[in-house]
């Protein structure tokens, strides 16, 4: 209590955050019980028939469990890797820009896609790549080339999805890394310059090593979402296109279809529990590896 009285301003500032997580994260955890029930509207959350692990059995017996798990992990690993690499590169480039006007303009243009919803992005993609009326195919047809049909060919999406993810999120990530670069003591760079270090050497020997703590923390936080696919992106861009389903279906879209198509709350809840358990295992394993390598940079 003495600590609360002494730092009451800090606790007051933290209170809205605590309320947010209690209301939207901890209280909804009571819904986990639905994963073990045959949920009905009359029985509700706590009085529906208890079926144990039958919902999980249905999920694994459907033949989709391994497919959507693989897709979710593979896509998120690629997204996280590309996001980290390009965010660092963008942050380093922006830190080396000397013109304040050009730096601010670059930051604004890179950050702009972050505010564009996936609904809008899906409209852009459709108008660019529609087989009959898309801009890209119009140009290809004009030059006598064969058009591309991305909505019936899965191979294009292996590149297009990571590209769109990086395009949307790299501006946000670069700001985080740029803030870390700005926090580096400028005297280190000045000493390196006096010793004859080139700009590339300063980046490789000073900037990147000192970005390691920030990079590790952000990667660990990213791993916490590795089983949570970008539902908005996949659903808005792919929808219920059966031709692309096997290559782009993730856990979140499967759970959404099971809920909207058959109103199977138990199945959808069991998928959510499955996601959470795997995420917990992944983040604990990753944090353990980080602690083993460098204890100071671990989350806990």
TrEMBL record:
<feature type="transmembrane region" description="Helical">
    <location>
        <begin position="206"/>
        <end position="227"/>
    </location>
</feature>
<feature type="domain" description="ABC transmembrane type-1">
    <location>
        <begin position="69"/>
        <end position="286"/>
    </location>
</feature>
<dbReference type="GO" id="GO:0005886">
    <property type="term" value="C:plasma membrane"/>
</dbReference>
<protein>
    <submittedName>
        <fullName>Putative aldouronate transport system permease protein</fullName>
    </submittedName>
</protein>
<feature type="transmembrane region" description="Helical">
    <location>
        <begin position="109"/>
        <end position="129"/>
    </location>
</feature>
<dbReference type="Pfam" id="PF00528">
    <property type="entry name" value="BPD_transp_1"/>
</dbReference>
<keyword id="KW-0812">Transmembrane</keyword>
<dbReference type="InterPro" id="IPR000515">
    <property type="entry name" value="MetI-like"/>
</dbReference>
<feature type="transmembrane region" description="Helical">
    <location>
        <begin position="73"/>
        <end position="97"/>
    </location>
</feature>
<dbReference type="InterPro" id="IPR035906">
    <property type="entry name" value="MetI-like_sf"/>
</dbReference>
<keyword id="KW-1133">Transmembrane helix</keyword>
<feature type="transmembrane region" description="Helical">
    <location>
        <begin position="12"/>
        <end position="36"/>
    </location>
</feature>
<feature type="transmembrane region" description="Helical">
    <location>
        <begin position="166"/>
        <end position="185"/>
    </location>
</feature>
<dbReference type="InterPro" id="IPR050809">
    <property type="entry name" value="UgpAE/MalFG_permease"/>
</dbReference>
<feature type="transmembrane region" description="Helical">
    <location>
        <begin position="272"/>
        <end position="290"/>
    </location>
</feature>
<dbReference type="GO" id="GO:0055085">
    <property type="term" value="P:transmembrane transport"/>
</dbReference>
<keyword id="KW-1003">Cell membrane</keyword>
<comment type="similarity">
    <text>Belongs to the binding-protein-dependent transport system permease family.</text>
</comment>
<keyword id="KW-0472">Membrane</keyword>
<keyword id="KW-0813">Transport</keyword>
